[in-house]
Amino acid sequence: MAQRIIDRTNVGEVLQHIYSSGLNIQLTLFSEGGYFKIRLAEKNAPLQGTTIEEAVTDLCSRLSKEYPVSSFASWWRTNFQSDDHH
């Protein structure tokens, strides 16, 4: 299953779903040197891509793998994964 990049108009909705999903995480998203990174568990990790759409897509893919039985992961797979390889 391929991951399609979310559209810019969906970034806010996707971040809201992370917020309201009940995941017990503390997350910081920041830009440094032209790249987006996240801070999770006191560690910085680069996100794939150089646009906010690519970065949030990568973040969501990681969260859905880290918490595969969460309501967020289910919502993400249903709405943003596709069988098309782009």
Walk me through this protein's architecture.
This protein is 41% helix and 23% strand. It has 3 helices and 5 strands. The strands form 2 sheets. Strands 2-3-4 form a 3-stranded antiparallel sheet, with helices on one face. A two-stranded antiparallel ribbon has the order 1-5. A hairpin with a 2-residue loop joins strand 2 (27-32) and strand 3. Helix 2 packs across helix 3. It is globular. The relative contact order is 0.25.
Strand order across the largest sheet: 2-3-4
Query: What Rg do the Cα atoms give?
Result: 12 Å
In which range does the helix fraction lie?
Answer: 40-55%
Q: Supply the number of helical segments.
A: 3
Largest sheet: 3 strands, antiparallel
Instruction: Indicate the mean pLDDT.
Output: 86
List the secondary-structure elements in sequence, H or E: EHEEEHHE
Low-confidence stretches: none
Distance between the termini: 11 Å
Computed structural class: alpha+beta
Shape type: globular
Beta strand % = 15-25%
Briefly say what this structure is.
The chain is 41% helix and 23% strand. By secondary structure, it is an alpha+beta fold.
